[in-house]
Amino acid sequence: MLLASILEGQAQIPDNNVSVVKSIFQAFNAHDWNGMMQYYADDAVFIDPSFQETIGDRNFMIRHHTELHQHFQGIHDEVKFIYAAADTIIVEFVSTGTNESGESFTLPVCTVFTFKNGKVIRDATYYDVRR
Questions:
Q1: 93-109: string of b/e by CB count within 10 Å (b at 16+)?
Q2: Exposed, middle or buried by CB within 10 Å (0-12, 13-18, 19+), for 111?
Q3: 17 vs 36: CA distance, rounded Å
Q4: Average pLDDT over residues 57-85
Q5: Phi, psi of 40 (to 5 degrees)
Q6: 3-state SS string for 53-75
Q7: In whole angstroms, what is the distance from residue 39 CA to residue 27 CA?
Q8: Contacts of 76 (CB under 8 A, 6+ apart)
Q9: What is the pLDDT of residue 73?
Q10: Quick one: 31 exposed, middle or buried, by C-beta within 10 A (0-12, 13-18, 19+)?
Q11: Which tens digit of pLDDT belongs to each residue from 11-39?
Q12: pTM for this structure?
């Protein structure tokens, strides 16, 4: 179920940013990594607990997602909530899939997307890496 929550009293929220986030998740669930990256600025940065440092390379992210899909077949994200405020969209979702041993997993995740000129310039993803 997808719920959009708009925080009262915030600056005007571009509807396009919410649409872009929805498109990112559609591309992710279709395992279309190149299609997903089209919504990111060329100089976008990516933050993820699995990275040793902040990443600023869309091609790295395409390779990362390709490898992720190889290790976790059928990986799928189900959006639970979208919160929007000005140039920031926060998404709570649950990632599911099956690892190489055939074991299924469920992982609650939160991503904070920052936008500029209709493109994601920062993708900060948070989850418990011990799961």
A1: bebebeeeeeeeeebeb
A2: buried
A3: 14
A4: 89
A5: -105, 145
A6: CCECCHHHHHHHHHHHHHHEEEE
A7: 10
A8: 29, 95, 96, 97
A9: 84
A10: middle
A11: 555 679 999 999 999 999 999 999 999 99
A12: 0.83
- Strand, helix or coil for residue 10: coil
Structural contact between residues 52 and 38, judged by C-beta atoms closer than 8 angstroms: no
114 within 8 A of 122, measured Cβ to Cβ: yes
> If DSSP codes are grouped into helix, strand and coil, which group holds residue 34?
helix
Among 37, 122, 108, CA closest to 78: 108
AA identity, residue 37: M
Sheet holding 72-85, edge to edge: 3-6, 72-85, 88-99, 104-116, 119-126, 40-47
Q: What is the mean pLDDT of the chain?
A: 86
pLDDT per position as a tens digit, 81-103:
999 988 999 999 999 999 888 99
